[in-house]
Design a protein that fits this description.
Elements (H helix, E strand, L loop, with lengths): L36 H23 L21 H19 L2 H9 L4 E6 L15 E8 L2 H14 L6 E5 L18 E5 L8 H9 L13 E7 L5 H18 L7 H8 L2 E8 L4 E7 L18
Parallel strand pairs: 1-2, 1-4, 2-3, 4-5
Antiparallel strand pairs: 5-7, 6-7
Bound molecules: S-adenosylmethionine.
Length: 307
């Protein structure tokens, strides 16, 4: 009798058919656990910085008023402070404006400017990069601080060396503008960013510039007012902090951070078309119209105006 011996090591290929589906590759070996050292260090630094800053705020800006060092009355005009702080202004606000989204809001609002544009309370020209010069025909920048205007002028010329239609004026925006800077028919856009907090009479200034905005006429849109401003939030605890800090902040910076923006806009006769709010409602980006039906009042006697 013949013995049939089986193969002691049968190979997989010895299957009686060819499998149609390829088997998935084996899973990769598990990764070694990641070190959490970086996360712990970052968290520690964040908590340390936040608590140190909170204690600093509490001891300085938020401390109860010291009767031996009286603070100025709310809304006292301290706008001349900008003459002294002009050279450090950008460094002081840049980080905060970038991290809190204010610069993005500037871009969104100021980027809508078109035609002949008037920017009041222009400061150091922080909006220079946000204008779409494809849409803007001319720009007039106004600020009462010669030191701030000088920085704005230098910045503009550095960023837009070939743009010929930018004019810089040192003057109080509440006073009449020189005739030769006002376009015939008025400005298509008026811009103000962070001006309500610093002007002695913010609604008076807005009312005044409302007179320079192009009027609505048959088939033609009127001019627009674009604002990025900060003030009270409407949240009780935020407003408590703002009120407590306002006097000390104003003495150092010339800015009242607790003004009622809605009240200022209402008193100026601003008609709000759209508003976006940031920072617990303390920062507003506004598109609106001003001065409908009012005449353009300018300084000087002739009846010219630029085209
Ligand atoms: C907080 S800074 C804002 C500057 C700039 N617009 C910005 O967004 O960074 C306020 C500016 O308003 C200016 N200002 C205050 N009152 C003014 C007035 N009545 N006429 C023109 N400028 C004024 C100050 O000189 C200062 O440069």
């Amino acid at each position: 009798m013949t013995k049939i011996r089986g193969n002691p090591n049968p190979r997989p290929s010895a299957l009686p058919y060819t499998p149609k589906v390829r088997l998935p590759p084996p899973p990769p070996p598990p990764k070694p656990p990641r070190s959490k050292k970086g996360i712990y260090i970052a968290s520690f630094l964040f908590i340390y910085a936040t608590s140190t800053y909170t204690i600093y705020l509490y001891r300085t800006l938020l401390a109860p008023p010291d009767p031996s060092k009286p603070l100025p009355d709310q809304d006292t005009d301290l706008s001349s402070r900008y003459n002294e702080t002009a050279s450090t202004f950008d460094d002081n606000v840049s980080f905060l404006e970038t991290t809190t989204g204010i610069n993005r809001l500037r871009k969104k609002i100021v980027g809508q400017a078109s035609g002949h544009v008037l920017e009041i309370s222009c400061g150091t020209g922080r909006n220079c990069t946000y204008y779409d010069l494809g849409k803007v025909r001319s720009l007039v920048f106004v600020d009462q601080s010669a030191e701030m205007v000088e920085i704005a002028k230098r910045k503009w010329r550095l960023i837009h060396p070939n743009y010929p239609n930018a004019t810089f004026l040192v003057q109080d925006a509440a006073k009449p503008l020189p005739r030769d800077v006002v376009p015939r028919g008025g400005f298509d856009t008026v811009v103000q960013t962070m001006g309500v907090c610093s002007c002695a009479d913010p609604s008076g200034v807005l009312k005044r510039v409302g007179g320079y905005v192009k009027k609505k006429s048959d088939g033609e849109e009127g001019g627009k007012v674009l604002l990025v401003e900060h003030g009270r939030s409407g949240w009780k605890w935020v407003d408590w902090v703002l009120d407590r800090a306002a006097g000390r902040h104003a003495v150092v910076h010339g800015c009242w951070p607790n003004r009622d923006m809605g009240g200022v806009f209402g008193a100026a006769g601003l008609k709000v078309e759209s508003v976006v709010k940031r920072g617990f409602g303390t920062v507003w980006g506004v598109v609106g119209t001003l001065g409908e039906g009012e005449e353009v009042k300018v300084g000087g006697a002739d009846d010219g105006g630029v085209d």
